[in-house]
Amino acid sequence: MIYEGRYWYMKTRKDKMLHLGFDYKDEIMSRTLSSRMFKTNETLSTFITYINDIMYSLVESVKNIKTFANIATHKQEKRLN
User: Most buried of 28, 70, 73, 80 (most Cβ within 10 A)?
Assistant: First the structure.
């Protein structure tokens, strides 16, 4: 089946996507570290937000590896948790 074809959209348009997980894009480090680290120093807070972006990209890269390793899914599938 062609992934980006019109039949794929017709097949998946009524899929109920339940339990997709938590959107943690901006909250990885704020939920992991103490709130005092964000409030005390502005430079440290800026550095932690930079680290948060790096951690998010690392988690997303692991998700891509899980998708490629699974032979039952299409390699461009983005709707997995």
Answer: 28
Cα–Cα distance between 1 and 75 in angstroms, integer?
12
Break the chain into its structural domains and give their ranges: 18-81
Higher pLDDT, 74 or 22: 22
In 3D space, the residue among 11, 14, 17, 55 whose CA is nearest the CA of residue 33 turns out to be: 55
pLDDT of 81 reads 59
Which residues neighbour 2 within 8 Å (Cβ) at sequence distance 6 or greater? Answer: 8
- Considering only CA atoms, which of 56, 61, 65, 63 is closest in space to residue 79? 63
